[in-house]
Specification:
globular; single chain
Length: 190
């Protein structure tokens, strides 16, 4: 499976999405290790060295299109598009591969529509640049803010998994999966 390149940086109405740079490491780690952030992620606190190494690896991974999100030059979060292989189907499967998007923003910026702006930009990159056939995203069922973002950008709820996600402190929690097809995105984004 091959994926096209993404041209960075990407500008939205208010934000810049760009590749990771080593200078971003401490700020991203600060955001990622906030209890009000990792409460909504599968892993709680992450190790500095492993975290920064993963970001550096992402720069050379053709299936990992992770980015840093800036507002007025200030790093406020991350976005990601992971390209997957059509559930193991042949590369010749029609209409291209699938992807998974995600976003993590500093809670200090909550309530201003930034997550929706990031998710919309990620979908645009996924469908328009990477030519993905389908994109999914997931969150804990209790993460109302996240699933509302997915609905605002046109994704539909496809699954409510009962106790399908293990959280290091909360134990088994319910998860939600949302999805959207390229033609659905094109119909609502034009």
């Amino acid at each position: 499976m091959t994926t096209p390149d993404v041209t960075w940086p990407r500008h939205t109405e208010r934000l810049v999405l760009r590749p990771y740079a080593p200078r971003d490491g401490e700020r991203l780690l600060e955001i990622r290790n906030r209890p009000d952030v990792w409460r909504w992620l599968l892993k709680t606190r992450v190790d500095r060295v492993a975290f920064q190494a993963a970001w550096l690896r992402s720069l050379d991974d053709p299936y990992d299109h992770s980015c840093v999100v800036e507002l007025d030059g200030t790093v406020m979060g991350t976005g990601s598009i992971d390209v997957v292989d059509n559930l193991g189907q042949d590369d010749a499967a029609p209409d291209g591969p699938e992807g998974l998007i995600g976003y993590v923003l500093d809670p200090a910026y909550a309530g201003h529509g930034y997550a929706t702006e990031v998710a919309s930009a990620l979908l645009s990159i996924a469908f328009d640049d990477l030519r993905l056939r389908r994109v999914t995203a997931g969150c804990f069922a209790d993460n109302t803010a996240s699933w509302r973002v997915m609905e605002k950008v046109g994704m539909r709820r496809e699954q409510h998994g009962i106790k399908d996600s293990w959280h290091a402190e909360l134990g088994w929690v319910d998860g939600l999966t949302y999805g959207i097809l390229r033609d659905e995105w094109q119909a609502i984004s034009r």
